[in-house]
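Researcher: We plan to redesign the surface later, but first we want a full-length starting point. Tokens attached.
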């Protein structure tokens, strides 16, 4: 899954409306599948500074 971001999470499209997210430090580990809307909402909130990352 590519690309990786600054906090070590990788994401990739699993379909037209879903994204898979995993910890890039554990490539064999579990991953979470989220909808496009949920992913977009999270990215928007991060950009707004709503999380202390």
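Model: Full-length starting sequence:
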């Amino acid at each position: 899954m590519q690309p990786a971001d600054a906090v070590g999470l990788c994401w990739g499209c699993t379909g037209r409306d879903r994204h898979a997210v995993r910890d890039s430090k554990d490539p064999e580990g579990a991953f979470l599948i989220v909808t496009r809307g949920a992913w977009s909402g999270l990215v928007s909130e991060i950009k707004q500074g709503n999380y202390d990352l």
